[in-house]
Every structure is written in structure tokens, then in C-alpha cells.
Write a structure and sequence with these properties.
Blueprint: H1 11-17, H2 43-51, H3 65-78, E1 82-86, H4 89-98, E2 106-110, H5 115-127, E3 132-135, H6 140-146, E4 151-157, H7 169-178, E5 182-186, H8 191-194, E6 204-208, E7 222-226, H9 228-242, H10 248-280, E8 285-289, H11 299-305, E9 312-317, H12 321-329, E10 335-336, E11 346-348, H13 359-366, E12 372-376, H14 382-397
Parallel strand pairs: 2-3, 2-4, 4-5, 5-6, 10-11
Antiparallel strand pairs: 1-7, 6-7, 8-9, 9-12, 11-12
Helix pairs in contact: 1-3, 1-10, 3-10, 4-5, 10-14, 12-14
Bound molecules: pyridoxal-5'-phosphate.
Pyridoxal-5'-phosphate binds next to helix 4.
Length: 399
């Protein structure tokens, strides 16, 4: 019998066993190596470690056994050659961009980006001599027109937050590559289970593991996944020298989170499907946006590049802010929070929270109305979620 490696196993099995390194004690659960550094048996061993002849651990800003187990498990899940964990999703995005770019380069990005990602491309990179062109991500002609000879990096997120627009990842990857640029995809909304950007042609994938991968609202984290060459050329040294390292404690929480990720995402997605259908059946709701529903404007593209609709729904309450607030304020099970991917269902009003800063014009242009709510479906019994929303809908009328 040939010995099985994690690569021979199916995804759910990889997420339980992949990357595990057992200590001399043979523990069942992965150990948490809460240590800054490592000791060497003698000076020759330290010399070999530093010269790279011995690949052992040196210092936890560079790497750590618990963090390495998490990285290995993420790489197996994504089908990536290499992974590097970071202290937050934003640390992953920052390193993925700054690690590649230098003054004189140019970036093309979709307008519909997570707020802090947009800050990086729109405000921070230009300060260092890297201008950015923002495009409507759903319009391929705009991507083509924005490319310049010096375009080095192309950046997008799909489905987008909060409108759940779908960007054609394979088509944008082709445009990027024809222009000699690399494509970075922020894959938080789809999760690694529902969409594989590397298989669609992306060069680098980033996650805020704060979301579904922790999945229970505890720790912040991020991860960058790409080919070994991409990581070595752009990411490895940048992270080592600038230090946005993931804490071994947080890595351990995420590592355990990965074991249950498929069960959680599947159930949260089933809840989201039913809640989306419920909302669409109600006269108080003007529009429901959920990628696997047939009435999603890009349903076909969504189903071509994703294996499900995901765990997040956006919907427009008829009226506007007052009606949306009345609904959300009446909820008892669903909590008001700007986070997502959690076991607890969370609702947010993008216009007054996550997308307040971009201003009314940019919101109108992106289709983020005052009546829009974003709902991240959790692991509660779906009937309790639906009954909670029924109470919320009643509160609009009695307002
Ligand atoms: C949350 C989020 C981030 C940032 O992640 P943090 O872990 O909060 O730093 C980046 N991109 C998307 C799409 C997100 O949802």
C-alpha cells in the first residue's frame, strides 16, 4: 500500500488532517507553540539554521510551527503551492500589494472594494508613486481601457461588498496577463470552498481569515496564497522584514476553525438560500441580491465561477433609511454588526456604516441605496431567522 499524503485526500479530509505536525508527545489536537523563538543544541546548529542548510524554525516573526500548520492547511484547501499567514486580512492585502509594487508601477482595481482595500489602492499606493485606476469591475471594456504598459497589479473582490456583484475572474485574469500584470483576488465573500480564483487564472489570493475561517467571531487573521515563485519573489521577505506576523494563538484558533469550515459554510449557505427566498416573497422588500437566485443580474456568471451563492445576502427595503432601521432595530436573534461569516447572523446598513465614508454619489453609482441591508447568515435554525425577520418587517408598518 502506498502511503497517502494530504494531496491524495478530498477537501474535507484535508481540512481535518492537512498540515498537522505532531510533537514528541503525539497529541491528537494540533499543539499551540506560543513561543517567540527557538533554542539550538549547539552553535553549529544555529549556524546551519541561519545559513538555510537546516530549514528549522528561527524566530516567530519569520515562522512558527502552529502558524506553519495553518499555512499548510490553507495551501491544501486552496490548491496553492505556498501560503503565508498575516495578523489580519488588511495585513495580507497590504503585503500582497506593497510586496509587488515600486514607484512608477500602476495598479488597476475594481471600485467595489472593501473600504480599507480601497484606501490602500486609492490613497496609500499613490503616495509612494504608484497611481491607481479604478474601474466598474463588471465592465470588461473598462478593465481593458485602464491597462497601461506600466500596469503591474490588478486587484478585485468578487462577490463584491455589499451589492454582491460578480466580476468575471477568468476574463480579468486574461486581460491582466495580456498586459503583463498579475491578478490579486480578495476571496473573502466566496470563501475558499465556493470559488477558486487560482484555478480561474488569478496569480494570488488573499483572505481575511477573521471571517468564515475563524467563523466564530474570536480572532483576526489573514493569509496570502500563490505559487512558490510568487511568494518567494514578492511576499516572503516583505513579511519577514516588516513583521505583520500572525500570533500562534490566533493561528491555532484558525487551524481548528478550518476543521469545521465545510460543515459551517454549507449550513450557513443553506440558511442564506432560504432566507433570500423568504425575503424575495415579501412585498416590503424591493429587491433581493443573492448570487444563486435566478433573479440575480449575473446569475449565470456567478454559477460559472462559484459552486454556491455564499452566506451573505443584500436586500433593499422599500422606502429608505427609516424603514431599514426599523426592520433591523426590531430584530432579536440577528445582531447588528458590520462583521460577516460568523456563526451568529449579523445585519448591517452599509450606507451609514461600512460605506458611509465614500459619500452619497459613490454609493448611488455603486447601487448602495439608503434602504439596503446586508445580512450575513449564521448557524441558527433558519426558522428562527425567518421569524425574526417577520417581526422586523412588521415593525416597518407600525413605525
Ligand atoms: C474583512 C475584510 C477585509 C479585512 O480583513 P481584516 O481581517 O478585518 O483586516 C478585507 N477584505 C474583505 C472583502 C473583507 O471582508
Amino acid at each position: 500500500m502506498t502511503k497517502k499524503t494530504a494531496k491524495d485526500l478530498r477537501p474535507a479530509t484535508r481540512l481535518v488532517h492537512g498540515g498537522t505536525m505532531r510533537s514528541q508527545f503525539g497529541e491528537t489536537s494540533e499543539a499551540m507553540f506560543l513561543t517567540q523563538g527557538f533554542v539550538y543544541p549547539d552553535m553549529e546548529a544555529a549556524e546551519a539554521r541561519f545559513s538555510g542548510k537546516d530549514s528549522g524554525f528561527i524566530y516567530s516573526r519569520f515562522s512558527n510551527p502552529t502558524v506553519a500548520m495553518f499555512e499548510q492547511r490553507m495551501a491544501l484547501l486552496e490548491g496553492a503551492e505556498a501560503a503565508r499567514a498575516t495578523a489580519s486580512g488588511m495585513a495580507a492585502v497590504t503585503a500582497a500589494m506593497f510586496g509587488q509594487l515600486k514607484a512608477g508601477d500602476h495598479v488597476v482595481a475594481a471600485k467595489a472594494l472593501f473600504g480599507s482595500c480601497r484606501f490602500i489602492v486609492e490613497e496609500l499606493l499613490p503616495r509612494y508613486g504608484v497611481p491607481c485606476t479604478l474601474v466598474d469591475g463588471t465592465d470588461l471594456d473598462q478593465w481593458r481601457a485602464a491597462m497601461r504598459p506600466e500596469t503591474k497589479t490588478v486587484f478585485l473582490e468578487s462577490p463584491t461588498n455589499p451589492q454582491l456583484e460578480i466580476i468575471d475572474i477568468a476574463a480579468v485574469a486574461k486581460i491582466a496577463h495580456e498586459g503583463g500584470a498579475a491578478l490579486v483576488v480578495d476571496n473573502v465573500f466566496a470563501t475558499p470552498l465556493l470559488q477558486s480564483p487560482l484555478k480561474l487564472g488569478a496569480d494570488c489570493v488573499v483572505y481575511s481569515t477573521t471571517k468564515h475561517i475563524d467563523g466564530q467571531g474570536r480572532t483576526l487573521g489573514g493569509v496570502i496564497l500563490a505559487s512558490e515563485e510568487f511568494i518567494q519573489t514578492h511576499i516572503h521577505n516583505f513579511l519577514r522584514q516588516t513583521g505583520p506576523a500572525l500570533s500562534p494563538f490566533n493561528a491555532w484558533v484558525m487551524l481548528k476553525g478550518l476543521e469545521t469550515l465545510p460543515v459551517r459554510v454549507a449550513q450557513q449557505q443553506r440558511n442564506a438560500e432560504q432566507v433570500a427566498d423568504f425575503l424575495a416573497s415579501r412585498s416590503e422588500i424591493a429587491r433581493v441580491l443573492y448570487p444563486s437566485r435566478k433573479d440575480h443580474p449575473q446569475h449565470e456568471l456567478a454559477m460559472r465561477q462559484m459552486t454556491g451563492g455564499g452566506t451573505v445576502i443584500a436586500f433593499d427595503v422599500k422606502g429608505g433609511k427609516d424603514e431599514a432601521f426599523a426592520l433591523a432595530n426590531a430584530l432579536q436573534v440577528i445582531k447588528i454588526s458590520n462583521n460577516l461569516g460568523d456563526a451568529k447572523s449579523l445585519i448591517t446598513h452599509p450606507a451609514t456604516t461600512t460605506h458611509q465614508r465614500i459619500g452619497p454619489e459613490a454609493r448611488a453609482e455603486s447601487g448602495i441605496g439608503d434602504g439596503m441591508l446586508r445580512l450575513s447568515c449564521g448557524l441558527e435554525d433558519v426558522q428562527d431567522l425567518i421569524e425574526d425577520l417577520e417581526e422586523g418587517l412588521k415593525a416597518i408598518k407600525t413605525r
